[in-house]
From TrEMBL:
It comes from Butyricimonas virosa. Belongs to the class-I aminoacyl-tRNA synthetase family. ValS type 1 subfamily. The gene is valS. This is Valine--tRNA ligase. Residues 614-751 form the Methionyl/Valyl/Leucyl/Isoleucyl-tRNA synthetase anticodon-binding domain. Keywords: Aminoacyl-tRNA synthetase, ATP-binding, Coiled coil, Cytoplasm, Ligase, Nucleotide-binding, Protein biosynthesis. ATP binds at K536.
Amino acid sequence: MIPTNYDPRTSEEKWYQYWLEHRFFHSTVDKKRTPYCIVIPPPNVTGVLHMGHMLNNTIQDVLVRRARLLGKNACWVPGTDHASIATEAKVVAKLKSEGIEKRDLSRDEFLKHAWAWTEKHGGIILEQLKRLGASCDWDRTCFTMDEIRSASVIKVFIDLYNKGLIYKGVRMVNWDPSAKTAVSDEEVVYKEEHSKLYHLRYRIDGTEDEYITIATTRPETILGDSAVCVNPNDERFRHLAGKKCIVPLVNRVIPIIQDEYVDMEFGTGALKITPAHDINDYEIGYKHHLETIDIFNDDGTLNENAQLFVGKDRFVVRQEIIPELEKAGNLVKIEDYNNKVGYSERTNVVIEPKLSMQWFLKMKELAKPALDAVMNDDILLTPAKYKNTYRYWMENVKDWCISRQLWWGHQIPVYYLPDSNDYVVAENITEAVRLVKEKFGQDITAEQLRQDEDCLDTWFSSWLWPISVFNGILEPDNEDINYYYPTNDLVSGPDILFFWMARMIMAGYEYRHEKPFSNLYLTGIVRDKLHRKMSKSLGNSPDPIDLINQYGADGVRVGMLLCAPAGGDLLFDESLPEQGRNFTTKIWNAFRLVSNWKVADLEQPLHSKLALEWFEQYLNKCKETLNTQFEQYRISEALMTVYTGFRDEFSSWLLEIIKPGFEQPIDQTTYNKTIYLFEEMLQLLHPFMPFITEEIWQNLRERKDGESIMVSVMPSPGKYDDNFLNTFENMKEVIARIRTIRKQNNIAFKDVISLRVKSNDRYPLQFESIICKMGNIQNVEMVSDTVKGAWSFICDTVEYFIPAVGEVNTEEVRAKLQADLAYAQGFLVSVMKKLSNEKFVSGAPAQVVENERKKQADAEAKIKAIEQQLAELK
């Protein structure tokens, strides 16, 4: 007995376990088959599933499941990222809650806590992906700090160092005063804030009452000023060229310099230059050989170089310095000001630009082949609009700060000699001892060497991901890497296009001399209906697991994809997964209907034969459309193709046409063909809705153990006739108009009616048997004139009449005809506008112009017929 309602939870648990037991997700090298491979964008090991993950992984699963159905050897490699700063921040917070400070622990002691945290939390998000239906090859699960990936990172660092691409130097970095580490640009989140713009005046050196006024949002940094800069084209400051001014409170004399970088319209037109604490000031300072005065400690407090407020936090100083400046006569005014302030993504503290000794990787040489690959479409970006963004980044690439002042991560493989800044770069301590002897001629023990305290940026491991997941760094000629690389598709968000994807492309060309993937599909951002990015902090993001529990995984997957165009933001609302769940119910009800039919050895009715022939042709065209949509990564459109195909065409038309009368049996031929077409529909739906399609597939007919829809063969497009399909569409409109007349005139469907058709070769005669069944029409008669005393309508220039059951309200008929006439006239006007446009007629393809001329002829015929009917009503 088939349950009345589909139970997603039971079905999902049952079939996911079935897929795992039969190892349908697992892929091994098979040179007889074409590989299809995706590597997962590794989520943070500390993470839990959020709406962005849901969208991203649903799209990946759709692509992988479709590839399997197409007979490809599909391999989706899962894994997690150690996420150095995020994980370390969580571990530090956990220890603090237990009364333990990181500074009181040794590195090894801290790492024990970090590994314990990782082992406890690291698998959560992967288990949650299973609830979504993700068909990853879990046997291949990787972690960026497992043995193979860690060894790969160290090997690449040493290789790049030996090639002269890695160096150590003092540069301006984003500094996180809470985590006390440099962070990458992508780990900085900019927030719009209501700030203050402080106008401060600096006395001109050698004068008593001449000043130059600057405007700043960070008055505490004046203690590190090295110059004041003006635009050489600014007439207001011409007289100050070559002069000096005095920094308030500390009375340091600094030069007034000129540089066209200064915006004459902003603030006062004069800019204070603090090379140690602003990236743009650093560039100007370097260009003009200015002194660099670093006034901040690593924790954001002021140091001895500031001379004043030493040991106080930067924001405390911001409040305390203003009264001092006012007292000294240097405060001119304070204005309200809106600006964007950079925050550390992980610790949520304001980033401080800071000069710091760090390790850097030269990027220009690595960037060139990666730029060419995208610009010449060897790697296709979808949507293509991001090519310009990519090109700009790659043409303006800067050296990558790869070091982080953290303990959780890949420790930099640099070993320093005792009491010295001399070092060697080595795979391990034993190799380091050997290199010290070779390079410096010193015999020392491993205990005497000191390894660099810093870790590598998280992205330094993830940029190797498509290679390292197949162990292609340590064993560059192994069977897996040679078979699966390059991978096919990469699905990710555009916010990390440069920071991760571009770097993977660079690594691919550096270490495989080949692109890492062929297609790069960029999703949009999941936003709420107010267009705000969904996030926990805003409280506008539902828990994905709660959504799956409520609407089922299939319902949520459909909801996510209903409004997720490539690169376009997804405006999420809970009505979307609800719509997905309702569609699941629609599929289940169709299954129940078909399964409850009694089958008998009867002759196949003509209407069933025609309907099945139509739907088979319709489905063939659908398959062709789907192939194009998938080739162009129009995933949402592909879903809508099968969604409407099932809901409107299969369920609402085909099943209704062939459905036998109450308690009547259906003929065997129709039943068999219907089951066959139902299975094809399920195969097309499966990538989007894996669970319910498997449930129904297994129950539509007997299956052997080990059979599954996910490893069945996707049906290929077959022949179809557009004229046949168009005629069927015309027939559907005729039936819809007959039903409307029944409804408007309260004629029950059980009451038979007659149909009169004014002779016209556009009448869908071949489908007359379907019109009769679906309209409950006892007879159809061709006539040459208008039928008086009948309800009428026009479809595709053909006039139809239904002899009235009772009296006809001529005023209602006239009003309807006049409305139809107005619409047809308006449509004709729009067509004639196109045809009167010479550019359109001469420039459009011949078939497009011919279609417009056909529309013109049809509209004119329809207008003539309606006008004739109106005349006869008089």
